[in-house]
Amino acid sequence: AQTVTQSQPEMSVQEAETVTLSCTYDTSESDYYLFWYKQPPSRQMILVIRQEAYKQQNATENRFSVNFQKAAKSFSLKISDSQLGDAAMYFCAYRSRVTSGSRLTFGEGTQLTVNP
Amino acid sequence: NAGVTQTPKFRVLKTGQSMTLLCAQDMNHEYMYWYRQDPGMGLRLIHYSVGEGTTAKGEVPDGYNVSRLKKQNFLLGLESAAPSQTSVYFCASSYLPRLARTNRNEQFFGPGTRLTVL
Fold first, then answer.
1. I need a surface site. Which of B4, B16, B37, B89 has the fewest CB within 10 A?
2. What is the mean pLDDT of residues A72-88?
3. Which one of B32, B35, B107 makes the best mutation probe of the A interface by having the most chain A beta carbons within 10 Å?
4. What share of chain B is helix, strand, coil (3-state, %, to 5)?
5. Nearest Cβ partner for A43 among B88, B94, B104
6. What is the pLDDT of residues B35-87, one digit of tens each?
């Protein structure tokens, strides 16, 4: 079974600064997807960015980028030019390409605070 | 499109009572999921369905039952609620993998149901 670990329960950043959220995972598979989801106080789960394991290039979405280290099984999220609206709980998630049902396995979450 | 909707948004139960949570999606997704979210534990999969009439157990299925009689609906039932089932419940849906590549393999989530069992 796959596991996902987020070792930072809480992080804080100053507005306009850069912050990196950490995620590690454990799997014996070689082909899979990794995701970062954002959950603001509204509780709505919002997909921030995804990475396909077979792609060496790190994914980017505007101010959000990842550092995907497949050999180290590490998948960190970098938020540049942090904004007050980035304050939320962030979840790292894993999805196998072979396991039935395209299920997601989530990490414990990191609560990000953005200070003005 | 309404996306994924959940009914109800909040509910308080007494121990031993039963209830059903309803999830509906209007995106013609094949796959549907029920997760629970507890502090410090992220989201954990309860049950899922890969198509109408099919269901399967996830990571934490005990105490729950599900049904997928219609493609657009996925019901989560608690037959005899326990305080340990106090949680926030999320429903999600997604395309078949062969179609998902054009849609970022995204699971679309509902707004959640906060359930308290006293």
1. B16
2. 97
3. B107
4. 10, 50, 40
5. B88
6. 999 988 899 999 999 999 999 999 999 999 999 999 999 999 999 999 999 99
